[in-house]
Every structure is written in C-alpha cells, then in structure tokens.
C-alpha cells in the first residue's frame, strides 16, 4: 500500500535510468539472492528493462551472478547478489583532538578503522589539510594493495559546511572559510573520485540511519555530544540540509536566557548548558581537548560511586538537553533522537532527566512517539557516516565511472 | 548537473510505472506544449515507454494533443498539453470562526472560493462534521454541474492530525480524537474519491510552495498566525511530517521562561508571547473568535496612526516571533519563512523586529540565507493548500481511478 503521507518522490526528469539502476541495486541489497524475475515482479519495471539494468550493474561489478538457482516450476533462474568487493568508500573525521579513518565496501562491511591523535584545536587549517591528506594517502595505499576502486572520500568536520564542501565556520577548530574539499583534492593531486566535506552531525546521522538499530526509523535526529552540540536531521529517509546546507545548528539555540555565556557570545545556548563544557564545569573547567576523554571517564567514575554533586550536575545537564530534544521533537517529530559522543558514556545519568523534560515539553501526547536513546556506534559514527554518504550516493543513482 | 546534496530520491520499488507517469505529467505541466520526443530527450525514458505513458495519460484525460506541430526538420510532431479541465480538487478549512472551500482544476486554476462564518470554537465535533459535509455537498454539486471528476477532498484543521486523518488534538476547536476523515466520508456516503484531513499549517505550506512567489524555494516553512501558531515544514520540495505526522508544533516551544501562561498550561510558549492573543492583550483581551478580525483591523489602524503603545506591543510581538523564527532557521535552514494569518496585516510593524532577532540569533552568517516574508495568499492559504495536496498526490504518481 502506498502511504498517502510519504509516497514516492517523483524522479528528476533527466535521471530515470540512473534512478532505475539504483532501484535494482537497492532491491538486491535488501533481497539477495534474488532473480531478475523477482526484481521485475517487485519493482514494476518490465523484464527487458531489468535485464538491461542488471547487465549494466554486472558490467560495473556491483552485482554478480551466483551458481544458485531458485527452486521453482519452470526454467531455473540465475540468482543475483551484491558484489561490493571491488569497491571502497572512505570516511575521515577531523575533530578537536583526533583524526579518524574508516573504509567500507559496497555492502557496508568495514575494511579498516584507524584513529590517531591530532591537535585540531591548535593546528592551522593548512596543517590540518596536510594531516588529513597524509592519512588519506595511507588509506588509499591500502585500498590500492587490495585492488579496490575508491568510490570517494568524505571528510567530517564539526562546523558549518556549505554545499560546495567549503567550511564556513568551525568554531572549535578555529576555522573560517576553509575550502577543505578543494584543498584536499589538490593535495591528493585531483584523484578521479569525489572528495566531499560535510558536517559531522549530518554524517553521524547517516551512519545511524544505515547501520544503527532503530527499527527502520525514517525520521531520525543525531545529536553530537562533542565539544560542540550539533544535529543531523534525517526526515523521510534522507538527510535534510536546508537551503544552504546549514540545518541542524541546534547548539546555539537559547535554552536558558539566564544561563552562562556561550563561546559564541550569546547566552544560555544549548551547547553552554548541556555541552561537555557544562558537564566538566566543576571538575575540570580548564580541560584541554586531549584531556576531555579522561575527564569524562572521571565523571563516570564519580557517578558510578554515587557522588551527589556529580549526580546533580548530570541531572541538570540531562534536563537542559531534554529542553533541546523537546524542540526537535515538537518541530520535527522524529521516531528517534540519538545521543552521540560523550553523551553515550553519560547516558545512564543524563537520559532519565532528558526523557522527563521531553515528555513535559512535548505538545503531542506521549512525546509524539519520539524515543531518546544513546548511540551504539561510538566515537566513529561521523567517519562511518562519511563512508556511508558515498554508499547513499550510489543508492541514489550516482554510480562510479567504470572502464 | 546532479547536485550531490539533493539528488534524486530512489523510487519505491513497486511504483516505477506510476512514478514515470508522474514524471511525464510534471514535464508537460512545466514545458507544455511539447512533443513525445521532447519528453523522451529530457527524461531519459525511451520513446516506446514515453508513447505508452502518454497514451495512458490521454486516456485518463490528463493530457491532450493539440493541432500544433513543432517547427523543425523531419516528420512534424504532435504537441501535448495538460488537460486539467475534466478534474477538480477540493480544499476545505475548518477554523475557529469560519469555514472555507476552494476548488481548483488539474492545472491549479481556481474554480471557486467560498467563505462562510462558523462557530468553530463552540460547535461540537458532530456539528462541525455536519457543517463541513453540507459545504462539501454544495461544492460537489457545483462540480457535478460542470461535469468534472472530483480528485478528492482535503480538510484543513488547526490541530494535530495523525496519518489516518484523525484529529488527535485541536485545542482551539476543543476537539480530541475526532475521526474527521472517517466521519466526513460517511456523511458523504463513501464517495469514490479520497477524503483527507491535514493540519492547516502543513497545507498552507503546500500552497505557498506551489502557488507562492518564493523563487522556487524548495525549503520553506509557513507559520500560521491564527489563534494558534503552527508551522508547516517543506524540505527538499516535500512536506515533512515526522514519524506520526506531528511535525511543525512550534507554537508550544518555550520562548520566554518568565512569559505569560499559555492555554496549554505551559509558560512563555511562542503562541502565548507572539500569537494573536498577545497582540490583542491590551486592546481586546476578551475578544471572541468572531471579533478577532475587526480587532486586528483596529490594531492596524492604531499602528498606522503612530500610537506609541500599539507600536511597542507590535515590536515586542515581532521580537518574540523572531526568536521562534530563529529556532526554525537554525534547525532547518529554509530559504524562506512565510508568515500567514493575522501576521500578514501586522507585517509592516512585526517584520522588522522579527528580522533583527532572526539575524541576532542565527548561528550561520546572514541568517543562513533565510528570508522572512508575509504571505501573499491571504486567509485562504490553508484551503488552497488542501486542494494543492491532491494535485501533489497526482504529481507523485497516485492517479485517479478512471473509466
């Protein structure tokens, strides 16, 4: 049945064949092993069209035939499966204290996951580009040894990224107007694949949508709990970026007009009242980026020991966070809001207060069905999502050049 | 060029033919008169497929051939245009003090626009269903005389509407759990067309997207300025409803923790600090729904005369409204936020303060490109959008039954 609320999106005019290739690819991804006849029956495409599309995808080594045949009356059918092995999608993340790299194949299977420390808060943009390029070259080298075609590289950055991959503002990296996509492509001598840059929350949301255990939720918001607090917004199964790509900037919405001053100059922003700085305001107000993780571990230790001051702080953080989540729930009504970053470790103490506040402030009954959960993907979510973005791109019909 | 950020949405598996019919219909809507060859060249569909799709649409009397031929080398081509005349889409609106009815043809041309007073705030749900059904029957009667096939009826309601067309809460109508879609279909003796119910802000947003002058903005938020304040959210060209259909409930987000109590029981909600009640709090705090329009006219008269107290009130309303708009801009980054309802008349005094606050509170530079404007569609926006929703449904491939 077609849901009258979220029916099919009409395809762009020029793109029907690409869309149909993607329909076949996605069908096999979800239903393999399956036959050409299965694809035709389920997609409404006629058999000749399906045969032509499948031939194209086999030629590109995105599908392959198996020796299996379907057990049924009539001529046995050759079965198809996804053939992701010749490909690699690479995701990188720049953060205030680390760089990460992830590579996955076409099926989403992880090929490598690396993390190295990096002084993001003090490095210049040029130093960052050099460090990211060096890490990318090491990953490319590895993929080359495995004879994989690289689908692209996406870099996750904690900041405003415009539609061209230029970083407009990344306050916690101290960047302004850095053409990271262009500079990185140059440093890699214009490789023959896309080099993209995107906001870290956006990419983590993609990772949760593709790999997270959220019951197929098609409306999902991811909240980063790093030095900054940002949101990645998925509605009707796709990332929503707004007009200039700046959607999801929830960190500087005012939660408490009488709250503390925020680094952005405003007062009582969500980031100021519920970010990691607020968590550590009593125990480690001057923590450097590299010290954040051990300091959060110390807060967890205190909370586990029942330290009253720590518990009170975390309850207050949870309530403030819940006010931000309630804004998201009222405006977007997602099935799930996923807390990432440092919130994951703090979830046992932060979540209950946040959930109470969400229920209290939600206009729809029962919080409009919005569940609030901690991410199970850990700190690698943004880099994993950076790789996932390249797979999404293929699922949407932008197939890699082949030959 | 395919924009890597907002590329094509893969079609639902079962729906490729319907989607392709819709692609052809939309192409002709935007490019008529055009030939079958034009359609094939621009959509990537092969010519045999286009001929089959066009034949189907002609059979349904959605397209027709004209005597025109394209001036070009080779065999002259028969040109196609939209044939909307045999159809009508009907939109109704229930509000606290009126009912409206609009009908448009397939091309969006207005066939009728009626408004009648109705005691929405005091009528029971049963009385409302009877009144809406009576109005619907009059419209159906008229369309029958014009020998038009009715594509459907959509009713706009100021409240939470679930995906089945049941009104969960409509506080200003005093409704809770009213199955308006079901009751209206019954009152109309189960007509052979869809009877839908939707939130008024959602539908007004659809009207602005289809008929408003917003330069093709694909990310647009409409704010109702009626007794309640709600939002309709269009992102990437489609209405976004969230998981249960409750997105856009911005009216009860807390703007000012020390603000006045809201009718919802919370404090300092956007509706309480920037809704029509706040506008009239000094001049007509006890206005009945029927008195709102003349009372707003009186406020406009005072403002035009330079009355200091009125100007101060409207500036404060504008600032509060701007805080709500800033939340929308930060979270969704739309190209445009459209103010509807009573805000239209008050725009000369409310808009400047709202724009200042938006600029101040927007994290992205230059308000992230979000423009704040007053609607040019007037009070009929929701009913017009109710009709537009049926056209959108057709553009998405849900063609009416024919025979």
UniProtKB/TrEMBL annotation, chains A, B:
InterPro entries linked: ATPase_NBD, HTH_MarR-typ, ROK, WH-like_DNA-bd_sf, WH_DNA-bd_sf
Family: Belongs to the ROK (NagC/XylR) family.
Protein name: ROK family protein
Pfam family, one: MarR_2
Boundaries of every HTH marR-type domain copy: 24-65
UniProt-listed Gene3D superfamilies: 3.30.420.40, Winged helix-like DNA-binding domain superfamily/Winged helix DNA-binding domain (1.10.10.10)
């Amino acid at each position: 049945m077609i849901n009258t609320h979220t029916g099919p999106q009409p395809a762009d005019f020029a793109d029907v064949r690409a869309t149909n290739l993607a329909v076949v690819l996605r069908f096999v991804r979800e239903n393999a092993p399956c036959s050409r006849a299965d694809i035709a029956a389920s997609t409404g495409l006629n058999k000749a069209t399906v045969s032509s599309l499948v031939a194209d995808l086999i030629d590109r080594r995105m599908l392959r035939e198996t020796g299996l045949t379907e057990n049924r009356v009539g001529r046995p059918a050759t079965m198809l499966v996804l053939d992701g092995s010749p490909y690699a999608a690479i995701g990188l993340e720049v953060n205030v204290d680390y760089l990460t790299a992830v590579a996955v194949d076409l099926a989403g299977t992880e090929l490598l996951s690396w993390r190295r420390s990096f002084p993001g808060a003090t490095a210049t943009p040029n130093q960052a580009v050099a460090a990211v390029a060096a890490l990318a070259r090491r990953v490319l080298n590895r993929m080359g040894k495995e004879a994989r075609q690289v689908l692209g590289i996406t870099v996750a950055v904690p900041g405003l990224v415009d539609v061209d991959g230029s970083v407009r503002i990344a306050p916690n990296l101290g960047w302004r107007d850095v053409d990271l996509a262009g500079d990185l492509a140059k440093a890699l001598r214009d490789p023959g694949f896309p080099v993209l840059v995107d906001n870290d929350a956006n990419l983590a949301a993609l990772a949760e949508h593709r790999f997270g255990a959220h019951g197929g939720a098609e409306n999902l918001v991811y909240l980063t709990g790093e030095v900054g607090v940002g949101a990645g917004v998925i509605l009707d199964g796709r990332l929503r970026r707004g007009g200039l790509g700046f959607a999801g900037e929830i960190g500087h919405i005012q939660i408490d007009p009488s709250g503390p001053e925020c680094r952005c100059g405003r007062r009582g922003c969500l980031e100021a009242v519920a970010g990691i700085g607020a968590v550590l305001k009593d125990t480690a107000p001057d923590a450097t980026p590299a010290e954040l993780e051990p300091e959060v571990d110390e807060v967890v230790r205190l909370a586990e020991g029942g330290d009253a001051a720590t518990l009170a702080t975390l309850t207050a953080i949870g309530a403030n966070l819940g006010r931000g989540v309630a804004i998201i729930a009222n405006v977007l009504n997602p099935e799930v809001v996923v807390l990432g970053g440092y919130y994951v470790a703090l979830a046992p103490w932060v979540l209950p207060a946040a959930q109470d506040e969400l229920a209290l402030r939600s206009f729809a009954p029962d919080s409009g069905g919005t569940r609030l959960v901690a991410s199970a993907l850990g700190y690698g979510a943004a880099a994993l999502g950076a790789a996932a973005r390249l797979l999404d791109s293929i699922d949407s019909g932008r197939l890699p050049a082949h030959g």
